[in-house]
Amino acid sequence: MNFQPTEEHQMIQDQARDFAERELAPNAAELDIGTPEAKDVFFTHLKALADLGFMGLNIDPSYGGSGVGAIAFSLAITEIAKGCAATAVTVSVTNMVAEVIQAVGNEEQKNRYIPKICSGEYPAAGFCLTEPGAGSDPSAMVTKATKDGDEWVLNGNKIYITSAEYAGVFVVWAVTDPGAPRGKGISCFLVERTTPGLTVGPAEHKMGQKGSATNSVYFDNCRIPASALMGELNKGFQVALGELAGGRIGIGSLALGIGLAALDYARDYIKERKQFGQALANFQGLQWMLADAYTEMEAARLLVWQAASIKESGGDFASAASMAKLFASEAANRACYTGIQLLGGHGYNREYPMERLARDARITSIYEGSSEIQRIIISRKLLADA
Of 79, 312, 368, 372, which one is the catalytic site residue? Predict the structure, then answer.
């Protein structure tokens, strides 16, 4: 078993780290505040990341992707998240949308949409699953798609959709057979942002990751062609579950990056900060806090890599992804609070990045399935295998 990245993996990681340190980190605080100038830079960064190949990391080159695999994807998201979590979540979700189109779309759909995502022609892509009454239980969705001649008519709304206001295309799940058992009559569709009847609501006012827009998406007699159906009719729910598992590798990787950024900053701070006539780093109590936190993040790294490796090899990675996402997100939250404690009052001050990192980390234990949902998935797998 080899825990060392390959030469290609190292190249992708180094490229992502260089871009994050040079371009993303200097802009992260302004993006969090939401200045117009920072928002303009954000779009410039998304296009630059697309040009570098980061919007289609696990996508076949024949569709414009990089084709470097799930492990390289994880490494890249971690490095991007160290620089800016808001950018990282946009990159992660956009990759996830491209992957679901590659997995279940037909050739016309793949050739029409994936190159636009990978190239940055679409600044981002949206994953429309969550609804007001269907969060942790997506099978309870009520958005409907009704067949009308050679068209489908969508009615309903989705919430908490990452990057919705600048997504070029959405993968949308809707009920197509209301009489079917829960989860059995759901299909997925590709819907372009400019389709009449599709409206994107204003951005949510969030606690963290403010630079990445999160919006509601409304469908009011939104007519789409029959060709917009992706995959088999009434078989879309399993597609959603499968893609969420892949998305959890992305969020676990993102959480890892946030946690490491917090600890790296705190480590450097206590080496310079002096109290009682010596550097804080000389005090054993603080050394142990740092050692415990870094050990947790290293364990998180190995869990994330394991899940990515299983996915890349074609194995059943759902439980491993849930373990990775659960542990990494919870550990990242602890790491950020450890970082705040190590900085003392400065950690609570917006002049320093720690409070932003703590706010950015908090959502990682909620989206793509909360920590409680991950525990359900893991325990069910353990009991089924017993």
Answer: 368
